[in-house]
Structures are given as C-alpha cells and as structure tokens.
Design a protein that fits this description.
The structure is a single chain. The chain has six helices and seven strands, in the order ααααααβββββββ. Helix 2 packs across helix 3 and helix 4 (about 60-75) crosses helix 5. The model is unreliable at about 45-50 and about 105-115 (pLDDT under 50). By secondary structure, the protein is an alpha+beta fold. The chain is elongated, with a radius of gyration of 32 Å. The strands form two sheets. Strands 6-5-4-1-7 form a five-stranded antiparallel beta sheet, covered by helices on one side. It has a two-stranded antiparallel ribbon with strand order 2-3. It folds into two domains: about 5-75 and about 105-135, no CATH class; about 145-320, no CATH class.
Length: about 325
C-alpha cells in the first residue's frame, strides 16, 4: 500500500475496491493508521475558508485542463508525443457492460501508466491552493479596513480632545441646533477647527454612507456618537471630561462604528465589519470589540439602561447614536 493510495482514501478519491483495501489494512496495521493520521494532518491546512469569495466561474475546469495539457506534453511515454499514434478504439465486444465496475483497471490509467486519480489529486490540491490565496487576500483586505477605520477614529479622538481643551472640558453636545443629530458631531469639530483639512469620517469598509442632512459641510458620517445623558434637573447634558483620576472617564465610549447586525437596536445601517466593530473611548483609546456590551460595567453602548436609543440615564450610561439619532 503506497502513500498515494492513502491520500486518495483521505480525499475520498479512491474507488470502492481501493477504499476496501485501505480500510482492511487500517484494521490490522497500527503503523498504517499512524501514517494516515500524519497525512490527514498535513492535508488539513488546505481546507478553504468559507468566508473567502467564490473563485471565478469555470476555474476548476480550466485548471484541470491545463494540468492535463502539461502532463500529456511532458510525461515520459506520452501517447501523443512525437512519432506516437493514438490507441485504437476498444472493440465494442470487449467493453464493460453498463452498470458494472471493471476488474481490469488498465483503462483507468492515464499517460505514462500513471493512475488518473493522481491527476485529480494534483488538480484538487491546486484548487485548494487557489482557495487559500483568495482566503488570504480576503483576510488581508479585512484587516486593512479595520486598521484604517481605527485610524479614522483616532483622528476623531484627537479632534474631540482638542475640542474639550478649548471648551471647558466639554465634548460636542448634540440634540439642538446647529448640531441636532449624532451625525453632526463631526461638523461641530470642523467648525471648531479640530478636523484635518479634507478629512472624511467614513469607514473604508462601509457599503452604505448615510447622510442625515447635517453633515454636508464635512461629508457623510459613518460613525456613531454619544447622545449625552440626563441631568439631575431633567435636561440633557453632553459628555464632559472628568479631571478626577479615580473616575471611569477614560473608559466611557464616545464614538464607534455602527452596531453589528446582531446587536442593532433597530433598523438602519450596521457595522461594515462582519465580526465586530471599532470603539473609541473618551480617553482616546480605540479597540476592536465583538459585542456591544463594552460600556462601563458592561452596559450596551447602543441602548440606555431602559433599552432605548436615547440619552443615558446617568453619565456612565453611554449611548451612541447613528446619523439621524437624537437624545
């Protein structure tokens, strides 16, 4: 029993007779079992990522065809090489009746006396390699989009810090003119000179760019922003920067991607990052999160403690609204 026989068995490319022979050997030879397990472990990384984009139509046929052309042209003893004549057709009387499995496997041999399943195995490995390439490209693109998005949030964080430095430790407040909605916080930064020239607060992975009508001075915005919190007197306060070192100020979310589809509080655009979202905290830190419960004490950053999209019930009750949301 050779290694190609075991590879054909692992990849389910062997015929019924070959599979029976391999299984009989595995039942009585522990060393054969160990060899099969080693081969299975070596082949397992060739599994294709399900999230990778589908290969172009007809790629499999073109790949197998090209491999066949190369093998026919280079294999020693090729039946189509110079001076060779193609074999005569098999007489009808000697052909295997339909519905039976031939016992003579010479007709399953390819050029040069090699079994055709070797070619199928090679083609399969080639196709899996193509899948790995697509998967790798997809992952690199995804990681680059996440990093670019984080860089945008850091720029916004710098602008928010500069705004607080010149506004008595107050971050931009939304909910009233001229900044009535969450999406207009970027316009507040631009009006205060805290946005770099030409900066657009748009996640590079966003397929949908909403426009709430108040961000035209800076372009559409695809980041959520704090809606503030309810004051003891009953009014709405914007988020302020605390100077108390013991305060959880730096851990309060102030901006982020839109919520993931699974945690969105209502209809509308969701995070363009299918496995999570980037979150900017008041202290300037940006990190990637896979859930919405990353607020102080693990609260949902897209709903207040009553479960609605509105101003938080207290300062630590962070609620981030998307473009168009109001406190």
């Amino acid at each position: 029993m050779t290694e190609p026989d075991f590879i054909g068995y692992i990849l389910n490319l062997s015929g019924l007779d070959e599979r029976a022979e391999v299984e009989a050997m595995l039942a009585t030879h522990p060393d054969a079992v160990a060899q099969v397990e080693r081969l299975r472990a070596a082949i397992s990384p060739l599994a294709v990522d399900r999230e990778a984009p589908a290969p172009p139509a007809g790629l499999a046929l073109r790949t197998v065809g090209r491999l066949a052309e190369v093998l026919v042209a280079t294999e020693p003893g090729s039946l189509t090489g110079p001076g060779k004549q193609p074999p005569l057709a098999t007489p009808a009387s000697s052909q295997t009746p339909r519905g039976t499995f031939p016992t003579d496997r010479s007709d399953l041999r390819g050029v040069g006396g090699r079994f055709r399943f070797d070619l199928v195995v090679a083609a399969g490995i080639g196709l899996m390699a193509v899948g790995l390439v697509f998967s790798f490209v997809s992952r690199v693109r995804y990681q680059n989009e996440v990093l670019a998005c984080q860089n945008n949030l850091r720029i916004l964080g710098q602008g928010l810090t500069g705004y607080a430095n010149t506004h008595a430790n107050q971050f931009p407040k939304v909910g009233a003119q001229p900044y009535p909605t969450a999406g207009s916080f970027v316009a507040a930064l631009a009006d205060a000179g805290q946005c770099p020239p030409g900066f657009h607060a748009v996640c590079p992975a966003a397929a949908l760019i909403p426009d709430d009508g108040y961000s035209r001075a800076t372009g559409p915005v695809t980041y959520s922003y704090t809606l503030g919190h309810v004051a003891p007197s009953g009014g709405i306060l914007g988020l302020s920067r605390s100077t108390d070192p013991s305060d959880d100020n730096d851990l309060i979310p102030i901006s982020a991607d839109y919520p993931a589809e699974s945690s969105a509080p209502g209809s509308g655009p969701t995070s363009p990052h299918r496995w999570g979202h980037n979150v900017l905290f008041a202290g300037g830190n940006v990190r990637f999160a896979t859930t919405a419960t990353v607020g102080v004490n693990g609260d949902d950053i897209y709903r207040n403690k009553r479960g609605v999209v509105a101003a938080g019930l207290d300062r630590a009750d962070a609620v981030l609204g998307i473009a168009g949301d109001q406190p």
